[in-house]
Input
Amino acid sequence: MNLQSSILKVLAYFDLFHYPVTKEEIHRFLDRPATPGDLNINLLHLMDMGIVHNVNDYYTLQKDASLVSRRLSDNARAQKLLLKAERISRFLYRFPYVRGVGISGSLSKNVADEHADIDYFVITKANRLWIARTIMHFFKKLTFITGHQHWFCMNYFVDEKGLEIEEKNIFTATEMVTLLPMFGEPTFKKFIEANQWPGGYFPNQIPKKIKPELPRSSLKKIFEKLFDLPFGEKFDNYLMRLTASRWSEKERMRKLNVKGNRMGLKTGKHFCKPNPSFFHERVLSRFNNLFLEVSLRWENEKQEYLSRTQQRIAG
Output
């Protein structure tokens, strides 16, 4: 019965995004170890109760075949976009002080709708995050000219001194285990080592494959050597304060982005990331409410299911 609750937790989380999942995906995101046989038996029980629905081998709490059709379309679109994302990741990795580039967001989960962005997770050299971010975002400004800014959403930065992710919950754990490291093998290995905690949420993960290290270009080496001088530290701190001030004003004015979401940035010397209070907390609140609703229904159906099973055995 505990396994059934774990299955419902997985389905409730992905149903927030109207995303049916396969049996293998359910197993991957369970909060406890389970054999394929045990998973299959408990899924059958939940389907017998009418709580879980199987549509073309995809499982969901919603009996809606259109969700599967949409997922398949989004998956096909994502496969094409991932090829572009890999090429762009290679390009971004060549920027000064960048030590790792990964794909995050919906694309890392093999999902891309008609308006999909490409989100990147960037790791920089220690104490040079703000120089790296400023250069990369200056380049992004240029992409607005050609209308390709949605291919260069560099949303989340950490440096080598801030590898451990501060927020530890089911949302960030999901983002961590679905993150696709692209370039920067040595740095990503350190990042994964510093973040073992998602295994407490999802113990059935498999090791990530990371592409081999790329050599640093001569131009990158020269730039870094220049800004490794003492003034580089002061310049990095100045850029941090400048960016934090600008984003603080945006938050104060409650500005919205093009998707209608509240704009916010959480900043520090070793990290720069979207303000979690503007999205994470909303997702977690919705998840907790949905899981509570599903759990109550499961408890009621479970009693009726056991009663019917006993009647069949007795008859």
Observations:
- The CA atoms of residues 176 and 198 lie 7 Å apart.
